[in-house]
């Protein structure tokens, strides 16, 4: 048996209007066609739903039972349609996102909170990776999009400017470097360093800077998070480099001081990368639009500004 939802809607209309003619008008169907559909519905269910007479129709007990069932079924079908429309418009869905630690600790918490408050039915799965792994994950379609440091990662990816990032040097309070507000790497390399984990962008910058200055990089310890880095620096195990806004989270609670790093590479551009904006699932496209808004207000859709690597 295959019940026709059109016939069920017509049946509900007849029960509510108490007349086939009025129900037919409401459902935009001819009265004769409405009568035929009701007869076919009774034949399918093998039960009489209406007693017919010269005075009109009268619902049977079976009709009242079917009314509740039909309303439930039609409500569920309407819910399916509504939910699928929400997926199509980006209001529902699952987004696979990867980002580096700089974006996660500085910008994403507030942005994701505001996005989730506007789109509570969208599930965002965020993973932290280093920039090279982010580009690879997006290229291999294991992530919808990612946020990473600007650079050349190969592959046919589109990049959209995201946020500016500034690296600074932190040292324990009372450290000789804290007597100045600006520090060069030549000055900093005279001391022990607390480094980030192997493969991180910051460690790469430290190694390249030391090589250019022909000075040794004295990595006393390596950690995997900014909070661990700040704790180690506060304990006097060395100085460290991290983004300014990330360091600000710990300056009030730990005995550390921040100094401007007087190096051209200390100012970085974070970018958002994807295979193609037009190919993103609706929910991911909605999140990309939200993330690429300027801090002071919305910007144009990134579809127009994405550039290929």
TrEMBL record:
SUPFAM superfamilies: Periplasmic binding protein-like II (SSF53850), Winged helix' DNA-binding domain (SSF46785). Gene3D superfamilies: 3.40.190.290, Winged helix-like DNA-binding domain superfamily/Winged helix DNA-binding domain. The keyword Cell membrane does not apply. Keywords: DNA-binding, Transcription, Transcription regulation. Coiled coil: none annotated. InterPro entries: HTH-type_LysR_regulators (IPR050950), LysR_HTH_N (IPR000847), LysR_subst-bd (IPR005119), WH-like_DNA-bd_sf (IPR036388), WH_DNA-bd_sf (IPR036390). It comes from the Bacteria. The keyword Iron-sulfur does not apply. Residues 1-60 form the HTH lysR-type domain. CDD domains: PBP2_LTTR_like_1. Pfam families: HTH_1, LysR_substrate. Belongs to the LysR transcriptional regulatory family. This is LysR family transcriptional regulator.
